[in-house]
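User: Some background: our group keeps a shared notebook of sequences we're curious about, and every so often someone picks one and asks for a predicted structure to add to the entry. Today it's my turn. The entry only has the sequence so far, pasted here. Could you supply the structure so I can complete it?
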Amino acid sequence: MNKVLYALLTLAAFTSCANSFNIQGTSNVSSLDGRKLYLKTDQGDSLINLDSCDVVHGQFSFHGTIDSVKVAQVFMDDVNLQFPVVLEKGDITLRLDNTQQRVSGTPLNDKLNDFWTKFTQLRNQYVEIDHEESAAILNGHDEETVNARLIKKALGVYAKGDRLFTKFITENFDNILGPWGFLTRITYDTTPNAFPVWMNDYMYANVVNQLPSWIEYIMAKATDTFKQNPQVKAFYADFQQAQKEMNGTADPAATAIPDTTGTAPTAAVAPPTPAQMAGEPARR
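Assistant: Of course. Here's the predicted structure to add to the notebook entry:
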């Protein structure tokens, strides 16, 4: 009897350890001290709080248990800091600075950090193009000519983002990063006013033309594990229904396509820095 009890306790302890996460974070942004951070993940069409903590002398931490590996987001109050982190077994380290955001310590988080760094750099290139456009107009250059030239530059950035997401997703079909990357790309591309105002209409038209074929390309290459992910499966069913409605081969569905990621920016071209979120001006 004692042996059975011991075995059950050992199994329970192992299971608890396997489903627990431990996140240690640091920040050198002084205005974050005393602010409350939240760790949130999506559940259905809403976000739930997994844990919260105060930033004290540049230190913060999150702990908890989950039933499966998930991608979560760090929030300050109700503001998404655009800082994804994979909740998996192991010690996870977050670095939340004004000039650098980094997550590391576990295999999937190392992959995520490499991808997110490259993606953020691409998003920042849209800001640089926007500044280039403003400077050219102020210097008296013809607006139509300038915009035509810079739209081509922006389309080149979009193409790089397309390749980045495609590579990342196809390399991670069988873990949580594949579905997360797939839904994140769709959410970013379809966010209203996702690009600077003067290029937004043109870039959005480009998205409308390219995104459906990209979705079909990913689904054609995808593994069964990826296709059976609940969020991917639900999105793709709604996507196919929407395509049929556009083609006139199906009547409109009764419900709208839900937002399945909870990770998109609200009209932000580049993620604000933690200091900007906290109301501290960026250092130059």
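Suggested note for the entry: The first helix runs from residue 2 to 18. DSSP finds eight helices and eight strands in the chain.
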